[in-house]
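Hi Q.,

Before the meeting this afternoon, I wanted you to have the heme C prediction in hand. No need to reply - just skim if you have a minute. The sequence and ligand are here:
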Amino acid sequence: MRRALGLCVLLATLTLACEEPPEREPFARGGQLYRKLDCARCHIIGGEGGHLGPDLSRIGSVAGSRAAGQTAEEYLRRSIVSPGDHIVPGYNDVMPRGLARGLSEADVDALVLFLRRQE
Ligand code: HEC
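Predicted structure with the ligand bound:
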């Protein structure tokens, strides 16, 4: 039992040590979060990713015209924080809730910036 516990503590320490340190520059941080939160499981950027959700390679150019009265910035923020607010025609409402849970305001800003620059 004690040995098993010791092993767990060792593994937990190693896992923590392996976590990438947060990028400081916002665009780089946004890309890091995009990878960490596994957005590419359902979205394509630059030819790589899954097909459950829309291709995001040009989302920076289209986000501003997706929902009436919302700027690109607002639309992208809502897409992450509250995915059910607007459903892109032709897709199902399957984007996971709670992706932004645990993210700081600065992290959400960074993710939005990263998406806006995909033009
Ligand atoms: C399980 C699949 C899945 C994952 C994981 C996922 N999404 Fe989505 N996402 C979708 C689907 C499906 C839609 C289209 C339906 C809708 O609008 O909610 C969507 C829509 C979007 C849109 C709007 C796209 C447009 O063309 O207007 C954005 C932006 C977006 N997702 C960003 C993200 C980001 C950022 C992440 C990671 C933090 C993420 N998604 C993770 C499935 C997913």
